[in-house]
Design a protein that fits this description.
By secondary structure, the protein is mostly beta strands. Helix content is 7%, strand content 42%. The chain has two helices and 14 strands, in the order βαββββββββαβββββ. The longest helix has 8 residues.
Length: 215
Amino acid sequence: MKKILVPQISPANESVAEIEKVFATLKGEAVACCNWPAEFPYTPAVSVKLFHNSKKLFVKFDVTEKDIQAKVTEDQGRTWTDPCVEFFVSPQGNMDYYNFECTCTGKLLLAWHPAEEPKESAPADVIDSVVRHPSLGTECFPLRTGEHTWSVIEAIPATALFRSGIDSWKGKRMSANFYKCGDELPTPHFISWAPIEWKEPSFHRPEFFGELEFE
């Protein structure tokens, strides 16, 4: 099983500049598993970095890919159709999990997926509590051809795990996976950090999550 040790680090403040200083000291994890190469062989260059300060988890995705567009206009929209980076996490390490799906312009989809019940979308105040810093800005744009490099930082409070009663990331062990997709881009793709052994593209497979250990 793949594993990441998430360090506890407190930046001087939560400005983008100070957060970036911390990320500059950390090694990225490649999101590079092309799980369905016969149908979807394209693998953009993607890495993810993480640290926490107990109350918040800071996640940064760096992406280089071709032919991007941003059509999703609001949170809880069809994020997976744009250039989208995703963080799925199971606080108990079982089949219950949350999906944080963020577009290249910072539009967020978040829901709770209990194994035996229908999913529950996050309320607006929880969505708003997840701060996003997309390098491309927040405005929609039409297709941009050629190669593009972009990043997004998410600051996720532990309370964004809104059905788990968690108020700190410190000392926790969770299972998780990280993804990059773009279902309606000129070249659709579906890549992951931990490999997925499934017959067709599906990120909602907690049985294939890796492990996160939080200092």
